[in-house]
Specification:
With 227 residues, this protein is mostly helical. 53% of the residues lie in helices and 11% in strands. It folds into two domains: 53 residues, no CATH class; 154 residues, Butyryl-CoA Dehydrogenase, subunit A, domain 3 (Up-down Bundle), CATH 1.20.140. A three-stranded antiparallel sheet has the order 6-5-7. Strands 1-2 form a two-stranded antiparallel sheet. Strands 3-4 form a two-stranded antiparallel ribbon.
Length: 227
């Protein structure tokens, strides 16, 4: 341990980071291992054998690609029909917003607010938050580091709870077809909406939050490590 601390340079122990101490954390099992001198690539976790990196490779470029795909699919997810209902009286196609308007006009404004927030605002806010995080890292900003880290944790946490419309359609399909009253099918917007949720989840997973703190330890570096 003294050898790794000696390679870290003239940094006080109270502010010594794992990167400065030559330590890497496995992205799979969390094992902490020392980086051998003169080797920066081709390292594997001593416990699970997974490749180890000081920072996630191509973190920002991968995150940007996933965000761009999510933005492109967000538009049809809100404009195309989310649910197609067929009965003896005819067929009807409903988008996310038409469902929100129907719930609001029928007096179920709390449910309308929940659907609007979970299906429209949450994916949009996730995309905007990820864009903000990536741009701030690329600009090597040193402002609001704790707040940005908390924002990332929030984006990562809410990602799995953004499938409200898909859950509602699944329940309606099961209930209505069981009673034989009508036929309900998921529209093309359901596929786009599910893809947006998955893409934003992958974008949050590919983003390395440690990049937020790198400017504190290496503010003069002209480019980010491994990106």
């Amino acid at each position: 341990m003294a050898g790794t601390a000696a390679r870290a340079g003239p940094v006080s122990g109270a502010h010594l980071t794992a990167r400065e101490a030559g330590l890497m954390s496995c992205h799979v099992c969390g094992q902490l291992a020392a980086q051998p001198e003169g080797r920066a690539h081709g390292l594997r976790c001593p416990r699970c054998g997974a490749p180890m990196h000081m920072r996630k490779p191509a973190s920002l470029s991968t995150t940007w690609a996933l965000i761009a795909a999510a933005v492109l699919l967000y538009i049809p997810a809100n404009l195309l029909p989310m649910m197609v209902t067929a009965s003896l009286l005819g067929s009807q196609q409903d988008t996310i917003m038409s469902g929100v308007v129907f719930l609001w006009q029928s007096g179920s404004w709390p449910l309308a607010a929940v659907v609007f927030f979970a299906s429209v605002m949450v994916p949009l806010l996730k995309i905007l938050a990820l864009i903000y995080l990536v741009i701030s890292v690329q600009r090597r900003s040193r402002h609001n580091l704790i707040q940005r880290t908390r924002l990332y944790r929030l984006v990562e946490f809410v990602g799995r709870w953004s499938m409200l419309d898909i859950y509602v359609i699944t329940i309606l399909v099961a209930l209505v077809q069981f009673q034989g009253l009508a036929t309900i099918q998921a529209g093309p917007a359901a596929v786009a909406f599910g893809a947006v949720v998955v893409l934003t989840m992958f974008a949050a997973m590919s983003f390395d939050p440690r990049l937020i703190w790198d400017p504190l330890t290496d503010p003069a570096s002209p480019r980010l490590p491994h990106d």
